[in-house]
Amino acid sequence: MTETVITIVGNALDQSMENRVAQLVKETGVDDLLLDRLHPERALDILVKPYTPVLTGLLRQKLAVLGAFDVFVQPNDLFRKKKLLIA
User: Fold this and answer.
1) Distance between CA atoms of residues 1 and 77, nearest Å
2) How many other β-carbons are positioned within 10 Å of the β-carbon of residue 37?
3) Euclidean distance between CA atoms 79 and 60, whole angstroms
């Protein structure tokens, strides 16, 4: 089954912000998540299983409070990187 990936990009993405984001994700009912730091304090991927349109909507709504960061929530499929480049 495809997983959901949350990509967060911005400045000052430090440990406290990572913890805040992880808490927001867990508040949607996700218990198992994997953090992948793409660039220190600049970019982060969070992988959660599974991918569902309902979960994607919940995550987008919950993470909208991170106004200083660009947040992308999408299935972790073959087209993910292409969709990020277009965005």
Assistant:
1) 10
2) 12
3) 19
